[in-house]
Amino acid sequence: MLDNVNLRTRARAMGTSGTSQGVSGILTPETVQSRTYAWMRGQVSGTYLVTSMASVFARRAIRAARSEAIDRLTDKVLQNPELAKELLRDNNPANRAALARRAKTWLGNEASTLFDVLGDEKDHDDTTKAAMQGAR
To answer: Is the pTM value of this prediction over 0.70?
Structure first.
């Protein structure tokens, strides 16, 4: 019934090559052995060996802490509707877009003021320029 059906495409996003998209966070005995042999042959330094193993342990610790924090937050949200309402309001994509536009507008206005102060153009009002630079 499923002859000539390619089921492998279900496990990857559309348009990808199907290759691994990230570094595996699993430090298997084979990985440790391979890295140790590479170090013994002089292909990698001891610093790399230690750093690569430490980074795997660190990623595991961060993943575990993140998972625990999400579980705690989920429990709190399920018990406190006000917290759920606040999180939904703060993480609403429409609100984030509005805040981003507002921040860009403010930064754009402030940047133009800074460039005006730093510029050497003679057409600026000297009193305004002196006030902005803090001169008395």
So the answer is: no
